[in-house]
């Protein structure tokens, strides 16, 4: 009785609901018997991981679904012990090196080496290479990425890498050039709707088209989220009604409240409150980029005219610095402070303009 | 004024009359006072008053030529006309005289040894060391310090001031100090002049003298008492309100106390004079004795004459000068007597005398008259304050040329600067005045000689100045003053010269009349002087510090405080010492050379409740105290704070305040021999045991010789110095051993450390009598330093010394080192030089991050003087914390620059931007180890925000919340990661997706059945958990993470019964997880406990306990390789033994072979 998202996750390339053309291409790729390193990227909830698992199944058969969690400990040259969890089948190894924090370079080096150095014995019945699936590659440190470069070439014979990340902007160019980049875009609203409707049908429910559309909109075309929302709606009220309340996640609500607080008053005290709220978001591990994005989209709706452009530009500026800096709160707060200053000025000037 | 007259004809006219009036009034006053005030005043008392007047006149003469003229007239007229005939010397001689005061101190010191002979018997053993010190001091200065003499005069004075006014604020002490010496000198001058004049009249006067002497002696005794009390009172007032005190004290004291001491001095002077004369070669001494009768009569007349004949007497002033050189010897003799006067009167600058009398008279009136107008004043004041806030800076900075004045031309003058100067900053003006020996105070008082008036000056100061008759000049006037005033030899130098002359003289015994006043514990109390003979001259308080080599300014008080030396009652002040050879200590560091040799010599340890005394009492009572039952011993709060329950004492305090010295002296004082172990000894556990235990059980050989075989244990002390240094491998276990040693010790143990709150020391502190040393106050140190500087022949201006003391953060040791270093370079320091050096010598004080933060944003004077480097240095007090503090607190600052909210927000935004820049730099620094960028970060993260936001902070700086948030972020991050790895087989998503997407819905999915169906939903929830391989602890962390903004956790809102049902359902079956549970072990135990407490499920716990037994063998470590498909079957297979030991942190994974 798992959640719908997982319950109805497609397991083969053929069953994928959207981007079927890409699925076909992948299928062809695999059917050739070999394929290059892959760099699969796309926004969260687009189905990257699902697609990869389908690909692996296509490659190795159902054996890849026999997964196990392994706990590995790797000793770094500095005698530091690094513990990391991996998910493995007989044919592949999935690891998220960024779990090891700054030790990710060692993980990449050691883990991949051990996997890649073992040859498949029965090459006749099996592929002669294993697959190492690295997730969240964009979180890797530069060191680890550079370590990856050499490994990718050296063990090409016995090992294929599939890198999975949200954005290639943080993947260094040498790696990008060594991989076949596969972008998995978000499904369109229509596709989301279709998926939702299908899932509901499988559950024996009837989903009104309007509600499906609303969910799709609200989820930002994030299919995973859409499905989770849909299920939440089901729990909340069934039969569905078209104008049903769609529950949002707590953090989204909280973020929106924060944005409203910024717009409703601009003062040092308010800035202090906002800081507290930003801290709350950050301690809940909401990524700063998402916070700033959420803020901007809310704030923009309260701005008009040229202020919109200005705020958007500001946001971009601070988001950039966010990446360069190390303490997210500084930059978020600076953005808020700047917005307050600009907004206050705008409002007062506007008032003055009206009075004269 | 006079000067003005000369240079700026217009002004003098106005001011002159006032002065004259003032003078007259003074005279009247004096007459009145002298006669009615002193009941039985002999002619001499009158004489005294007249003497005073003369002094004033003399003083005037120094500063202003016209007045000088007057004086000469008087003096010649009154006493000697022959003197006039002498060629006119310059004014300097007069000044010399003034400096002789200090000389007198030295004489006193000479006397002391003799005294000590008298008192020596009465004194307890404690006094002994003092004597030595004193002798050392007294004897050496003459031969050794040629230079020293120059400096010496000031030094003796200071200690006295410091001693007498321990609680005074810094400024007040300065005033007191600086002024006092000067006044004395004036008096002396007068006295001496008179005496000379008197010499001719000797025959007549002699007889009178004798009578007068007798009468006076009686009176004196009484008066002294009075004086002391009053003085004490004034001092007490001073303590209460530092600023007001001065003015009041000056106003009040001159009338009573000043007269008192002055009288004393005069009275005594004849005696001393006669004695000294007899002894001395100089004929000058003789004259002094003669003065009294003639003078008394003549004084009044002379005073009048003076006034009348303002205009002419320049020549005569010159004649006076002639006298002065001769006077020097007499001065010295008289000076002793004046010491008393000194103590009583913090005197003003030489020029002041004119003003002072006026002020005296006026002061009472003023108080009355002012009160009715208060209301109006307030209004005026408030507007004035507003103006004050708005006033601009100097308009024409640097437009006027700063004149190059003669050396010390402003010496003895007191200035008050008010308003804005046109051509210079106020600070510059201040340092300009100070450079030429003048003194700058904040408030107008009677002592103030000039009020320097700038633009937009405050009305109150002007009024006050007018009421006091203070001369008011403007900026140009000040510059003219500097330009035109003749330079003087510094009084220090003069004093030194005088001393040179004196030194050949045989030391005479002089005694001051004794005060029988009861000893008060108030700081104001004068030192008890020993009374020797009826005619004894007072050993003035000043003498002691100067003469005694000890550092203690308040030594006498200390003695009083010490209960043990009862014998001392009288003779405390007379510290004789075996003369210490001058050469001794020449190779020593000053710190050792001048290490106090008695408890009284300790700086800042003189109070009854001071650490030194507490320690002394503790040690005294140690053997009696520790015979008590053991139970009483270690009670931390048992009894009074005499520490009688403790076997050890712990002295803690900053470095350089004298902890070690105190401990050693206390031991010596009580005749204990001590074994000291400090950080240079290895103090590991074994070592301590062996060495210490051994040495403590030894018997000292000394006792064999002496024949008195003592058990060692009664007279030994173990001093463990620097216990906080017991660290590292060397001293491993040292503290523990110390504690056990203390527990068993049969002898007292004294431990010392710097940081009382250090982790290591804390355990030790429980067993120790806790004595915390504070830094001595500025004045306490200053007195001692002055005397040392004097002894070393180092001339340090008082302000410079202040600077130095503050710079080293009241670290006596460091101050001494600095002084020592200077003395190697140059014996005579100019003000500028010293000021610069003092700045260099400034001890880097480590500021706490809170102080740093406050300073970064603080506005006003504090930061106005700071250079960019200073500001960025703030950052470096702790470069890892400073930016955090700034970031945390910049929102609490109200920037002065922000007019309105909009402006404020803009500033905030700019600040935030700058802080961001700092963060970027920080990232660069830390990721690439480019530490050279730190200064850049300092600018961005601290200096710029400080500049932008400069203002005042509405609250105390708060500790950066970033640190806490960061760590809780990290914790949540780990939790989520663990969750993600647990769910990874089903969910296939990254932890971020888990956090953002899954968790909220998963939580509601888990709780929904429980909320909706209650206990019946439990199985459903458990089922879901199994599907996602979530264990109970994950459930808890889900609840924790998905709680927002302090909302209650929905799970905790569930009915306890439901929760219990849920827990039961969960425990009913085994949960096969695809991961090893070992890592979670610890967390689980905690979770289970919490759950038990919460639900109160004893039943459950019993079950758990039962199950536990079965499963003890269960292996938690088996790695599971599990296939979804096989899950069901395995469960069934294992169902039999499925009761999983979940309770005790037993791992619960079940070995499950899939393949």
From TrEMBL, chain A:
GO biological-process terms attached to the record: DNA repair; DNA strand elongation involved in DNA replication
GO cellular component: DNA replication factor C complex; nucleus
GO MF, one annotated term: DNA clamp loader activity
Annotated localization: Nucleus
Keyword Repeat attributed: no
SUPFAM superfamilies xrefs: P-loop containing nucleoside triphosphate hydrolases (SSF52540), post-AAA+ oligomerization domain-like (SSF48019)
Domain of life according to the entry: Eukaryota
InterPro entries, alphabetized: AAA+_ATPase (IPR003593), DNA_pol3_clamp-load_cplx_C (IPR008921), DNA_Rep/Repair_Clamp_Loader (IPR050238), P-loop_NTPase (IPR027417)
Keyword entries, A-Z: DNA replication, Nucleus
CDD domains recorded: AAA
Occurrences of domain AAA+ ATPase (ranges): 34-186
A Pfam family hit: DNA_pol3_delta2
Biological role stated in the UniProt entry: Subunit of the replication factor C (RFC) complex which acts during elongation of primed DNA templates by DNA polymerases delta and epsilon, and is necessary for ATP-dependent loading of proliferating cell nuclear antigen (PCNA) onto primed DNA.
Family as reported in the entry's similarity comment: Belongs to the activator 1 small subunits family.
Assembly and interaction partners: Subunit of the RFC complex, an heteropentameric complex consisting of a large subunit RFC1 and four small subunits RFC2, RFC3, RFC4 and RFC5; the RFC complex interacts with PCNA. Forms an heterotetrameric complex with RFC2, RFC4 and RFC5; this complex has ATPase activity but is not stimulated by PCNA. The heterotetramer of subunits RFC2, RFC3, RFC4 and RFC5 interacts with RAD17. Interacts with CNTD1; this interaction facilitates crossover formation.
Protein name: Replication factor C subunit 3
TrEMBL record, chain B:
Compositional bias segments (type: Low complexity): 280-299
First-listed, main subcellular location of the protein, grouped into a coarse class: nucleus
GO terms for biological process, alphabetical: DNA repair; DNA replication
Keywords from the named record: ATP-binding, DNA replication, DNA-binding, Nucleotide-binding, Nucleus, Phosphoprotein
Positions with biased composition (Basic and acidic residues): 41-50, 493-508
SMART domains xrefs: AAA, BRCT
Comp. bias regions, Polar residues: 252-262, 331-358
Subcellular location per the Swiss-Prot or TrEMBL entry: Nucleus
Record keyword Membrane present: no
Family annotation (SUPFAM superfamilies): BRCT domain, P-loop containing nucleoside triphosphate hydrolases, post-AAA+ oligomerization domain-like
Chain intervals for the UniProt region annotation (Disordered): 1-169, 185-208, 235-400, 493-557, 1094-1155
Domain BRCT span(s) in chain numbering: 405-485
Biased composition, class Basic residues, residue ranges: 1141-1155
GO molecular function: ATP binding; ATP hydrolysis activity; DNA binding; DNA clamp loader activity; DNA clamp unloader activity
Superkingdom per UniProt: Eukaryota
A GO cellular component entry from the record: nucleus
Subunit and partners: Large subunit of the RFC complex, an heteropentameric complex consisting of RFC1 and four small subunits RFC2, RFC3, RFC4 and RFC5; the RFC complex interacts with PCNA and the interaction involves RFC1.
PANTHER family assigned to the protein according to its UniProt record, in alphabetical order: CHROMOSOME TRANSMISSION FIDELITY FACTOR 18, REPLICATION FACTOR C SUBUNIT 1
Function description: Subunit of the replication factor C (RFC) complex which acts during elongation of primed DNA templates by DNA polymerases delta and epsilon, and is necessary for ATP-dependent loading of proliferating cell nuclear antigen (PCNA) onto primed DNA. This subunit binds to the primer-template junction. Binds the PO-B transcription element as well as other GA rich DNA sequences. Can bind single- or double-stranded DNA.
Entry similarity comment: Belongs to the activator 1 large subunit family.
UniProt name for this protein: Replication factor C subunit 1
Organism: Paramormyrops kingsleyae
UniProt lineage: Eukaryota, Metazoa, Chordata, Craniata, Vertebrata
